[in-house]
Amino acid sequence: MKIMWPILLAVFRSLYFAYAAWCVVFPIAFVYLCTVYPSAVLWSAMALSAMLLVGVYRQRTQDDPNPWQSGFLAWFGTLKLFHTSRPGAMVGIGLPSAYLVENPRSYRIGGRDLRAVLQLLQPGDILLRGYEGYVDGAFIRRSSRCSEQGYRPGWYTHAALYVGPLTEEDRQLVPAAFAHDAGFFETGAQMVIHSMAKGVHTEDILTFARCDYLTVLRLPADAGFDRDHAIRSARAAALSKIGEEYDFDSSDTTRFHRFSCSELVYYCYREVRTALHLAPRLHALYPLGKLNRHWAVLQRNTIIPDDYYELTEAGRLQKIWEDAASAQRPGREIAAQ
Length: 337
Known about the structure:
- The chain has 337 residues and is an alpha+beta fold.
- The chain has two domains: 4-58 and 67-102, no CATH class; 111-335, endopeptidase domain like (from Nostoc punctiforme) (endopeptidase fold (from Nostoc punctiforme)), CATH 3.90.1720.
- 39% of the residues lie in helices and 20% in strands.
- It contains 13 helices and twelve strands.
- It has a six-stranded antiparallel β-sheet with strand order 6-5-4-3-7-12, sandwiched between helices. Strands 1-2 form a two-stranded antiparallel sheet. A two-stranded parallel ribbon has the order 8-9.
- Strand 5 and strand 6 form a beta hairpin.
- Helix 1 crosses helix 2 and helix 8 crosses helix 9 (261-268).
- The longest helix has 33 residues, at 4-36.
- The protein is globular and about 75 Å long.
- Residues 333-337 have low confidence and may be disordered.
């Protein structure tokens, strides 16, 4: 199994380099076509331009007699140039890339949503979030729970623990090597502790909530255990693991020396996991999604963000807030079975 990862890294990274190179070469190729086949390129451009102009002209109104002007300015304002020359920290090989994107949509979670969430949050809450467009998110969603029904896609791609205010006193609970490293621990009024590629670290809730999907879960008051004690213990446990490495295998649920996002929350609430019916389950990656409901790879016992959401269906966790898109997500009726 270990040999698979260098192969995947080499293959997909090479494909990305080829894609990036194509984006750079395409303008040159277009100039070449204009030189070799000028007539064909000219007539094609004229036909497309005519279709565009006619389409825009048909949208004219009394209030907007010149739709070409408003159409151009409105379209021009949707263009965004993305540029980077730095690869991921663990990759080491970068390729400067610049891509012009038309109408890149902002995050679904907006100001009104954030104001509602900030007023509802309490220390100990479990946060689930998701994004549109990230490739790794597609893989995480396909890492569904194995069942007799076969492929059961997930929705959320990340889990975190909301701990509320962090002060200088809390710094004493953080391992010394990371206590004064601002990249891993910072004080603040409304903070989150979660695990990502760089490891376990703190983050302001306003930064964390810049996403497309978000749900807030909470321990129920009548769960049969001391809820306040469980939250205090979870908070202290999260602080004690600041700086720990990320579990890229997402399979380490026993030794607790590296963590995926969901494993960290599981570790923090390990004292009450029996009462919550929270336990690792068999998950696997279904590469072809809906086209393949039974063939799976990378089977392992672990926890994914959607496992926490399923606990709300069983009454083990309370759903405090959920964004509108998540509440209406496709296939929700299947996940609830």
